[in-house]
Amino acid sequence: MSGEEAPTQQQQQQQQQPEQVNKPDESAPAATSDAPGESGAAAAEEKPLSCRALVLTGFGGYDKVRLQVKTLERPRLKAGEVLVRVKACGLNFAELLGRQGLYELLPAPPVTMGMEGSGVVEAVGEGVKDRKVGDRVIAMSRSGMWQELVIVPANYTFPMPEQMSFEEGAAIPVNYITAYMMLFEMANVRPSKSVLVHMAAGGVGIAVTQLCQTVPDVTVFGTASASKHETIAQGGVTHPIDYRTKDYVEEIRKISPKGVDIVLDPLGGSDTQKGFNLLKPLGTLIVFGVANCMTGQKKNLLAMAKTWYNQLSLNMLKLMQANKAVCGFHLGYITDEQLISRAMVTLLELYRQGKIKPRIDSCYHFEEVTDAMKRMHERQNIGKVILLPEPKKEEDKPDAEPGEIVEKTEAAVSEKKEEAKEEVKAEKD
């Protein structure tokens, strides 16, 4: 099993909605300076700002990510910074790992997560010449994007094409830069090559498929559950493979006995070894994740140990004899802003030309972050899951009284506990 849509072990456990808490003394959404920008936030300084944010309060399950409302001091921008009012944020696998304490680049809780978003510039700091108030931009940060207001370096913002929605803007950076750099900077994909991508229905998988279509005659093998095959085939996957019912290695060998030229592996563990063995001579394996480590909503030490034990082990002599390349990719460790900027400029031009277009699976308001994380964790999504900072409208909320909701929730939890007991009993039998 590749792990792309492996059912979680804790689907029957209670899933708590995020708790909304007023935090008047919370700090500002990003680092500030005592030196205000000369062209900075005059309008924003007229009165204190209220900012909704999703805060990781500790490592663990879904309930550790909570909606908080912060009252901010007047933002004072450093030179080269901009203040962005966020309209949409991207949810990535890294945030699921971060919630479990498995993403090493995330600061210790309490911390606001989120690496990408889109919105409107509300103020600019000193020295910012190519951004102005009112610009629609895509923004990136190592963390902190899951909030209504964020301060970021201007060179980590990118003007959005006119026809691009905020949801699409938030879906571009992490997934498409990852796919672009792996395919074109590392693997050097060329006409008539073949590519295997796992989790082909996810954000990176769809980005890889679309980018492969910009190169003539590239064959794409993609693993996904059978229910997603029609969608990913329409999107450009040449050979969809149901990893749940079939051995993807055998299926690929039937179609291409010599294997494939490029393997993109977000799984880790034994799947990395399988990917290496599937490579043709002069082929390239790129490892960019360890999804096999995540089997439940909380950290699973057994799954981590199993993944580590089964990881690919090579010595240089064996690598030379195999005539294959093994690479690792982690966007979070790329600190060269020119590499990021160059990739984004190329991707936005491809969007303008209609050659790539993010597929939005679903949108959730901040109040619904538990549902959003659960959808991605259980591999139900086809495309990108988006978070919306704006409050959920009253007409979209349940009509039931609070007592009724609690009562129904308690009944559902009891029912799920009983189901879990039955499953455990069945396993023992």
UniProtKB/TrEMBL annotation:
Residues 1-46, 388-429 are annotated as: Disordered. One of its GO terms (biological process) is negative regulation of mitochondrial fusion. Residues 60-387 form the Enoyl reductase (ER) domain. One of its GO terms (cellular component) is mitochondrial outer membrane. Residues 390-429 have a biased composition (Basic and acidic residues). This is Enoyl reductase (ER) domain-containing protein. Keywords: Oxidoreductase. GO terms for molecular function: oxidoreductase activity. The lineage of its organism: Eukaryota, Metazoa, Chordata, Craniata, Vertebrata. Coiled coil: none annotated. PANTHER family: SYNAPTIC VESICLE MEMBRANE PROTEIN VAT-1 HOMOLOG, SYNAPTIC VESICLE MEMBRANE PROTEIN VAT-1 HOMOLOG-LIKE.
